[in-house]
Amino acid sequence: MSQPAGGSAIKDVVGEDVVTRDVAIVGAGPVGLCLALELAALGLTVTVIDRAPWEALASPDDDGREIALTHASRGQLAASGVAIPEDRMAPIREARLYNGDPPHGMTLASARGEAQHGIGQLVANHLIRRAAFEAVRGDERIELITGHGVQALNGGADWRSVRLDDQREIPARLVVAADGRLSVTRRLAGLSAQVHDTGQRLLVRRMAHSRPHRQTTWSWFHGERGLALLPLAGDSASLVMTLPPHDAERLKALSPTAFATEATRLYRGCVGEMTCLDALHDYPLTVSHADRLVADRVALVGDAALGLHPVTAHGFNVGLASVRRLVEALASHAGTTADVGAATGLASYARHHRRAIVPLWHASRALVALYGDTRPPARLVRHLALGAARRAGPLQWLMEGYLARH
């Protein structure tokens, strides 16, 4: 399959035969691709670079992960041309958090009345990736370079150049790192980050079950172990387990039948007896936070800017919010479309996005630390916090407002 040609509105020439794009995006995940679509809609020329081969991006494997989309994120995807069929989404009507064994938990958010779509929808990660790639592939303003990684960043007075592993140079007015929480582009740009390997593993698997989930997500914390259940279509759900390595290896060694029995026990029969629907997927658990979001003609988006713990369930939504804020900042500053990498627009983006993500980063770290602490004082604090939260309507209102806006 041949790659599509690049965009036509070339702005400048660096050297004899090398054209300068407006924007070069490193990373063809959903965040990078959505950014490409929104920038192209502004009339900018965009090149997207990814080390994965074309075939892997066009038809991504099912990695077992489910993405919780807020209504704002779903609208942003649709506006960008990323079409996900309604019947491939599973609504969420309520989200609950539990502190170990007690039967009462905290309602983080709940759909009021008879809202058709609840507080959000769950969509398989590979479906979002495929839909985003299809949208970009159909846009002649966007050039795709696949199967090549980035080796270096160079630059001049009004441009940066991405050097690929085949020694090609891709000059652009702006380079955007959308290559994940371990971003190579971020490092090459000299932007430091706090990267924390939690030492834990993330196991995910889709299961069928005998009792209804009532379109409710559940999260439990038991010391080092965190368990979540995400409601899918019909009587099925995705199990998400945050585990120490020895627990993860024990579960990985089980047969599907034995795994289902153990999962039913771990989840306390909350949805009845379980059976496995597909393969078990295993991921290392690393979180990250960039100290700065921009450098000279470089910006960070998605997980390259903030890689959250899955307990927040908001990683992809925050990534899409970074796209929205960057596009808004670039579009709202005079002269930005003439020079998209100008410092004024980037500074505006960094200021607005940092204001949103710094509290989220600290809150998520504090939540994980509190719920991972097995000492009696921490258990008491968790118990009191949940008790207070159950009685505090404003807390639920604030959480629901956050879900609606982000």
UniProtKB/TrEMBL annotation:
UniProtKB keywords: FAD, Flavoprotein, Monooxygenase, Oxidoreductase
Coiled-coil zones: none
Domain FAD-binding, chain residue ranges per copy: 22-351
Gene3D superfamilies: FAD/NAD(P)-binding domain
Cofactor names: FAD
Superkingdom of the source species: Bacteria
Keyword DNA damage attached: no
Membrane-spanning ranges: none
One GO MF term: FAD binding
One GO BP annotation of this record: ubiquinone biosynthetic process
Pfam families on file: FAD_binding_3 (PF01494)
Pathway(s): Cofactor biosynthesis; ubiquinone biosynthesis
Keyword Flavoprotein applies: yes
Assigned protein family: Belongs to the UbiH/COQ6 family.
Name the UniProt record assigns to this protein: 2-octaprenyl-3-methyl-6-methoxy-1,4-benzoquinol hydroxylase
Source organism per UniProt: Chromohalobacter marismortui
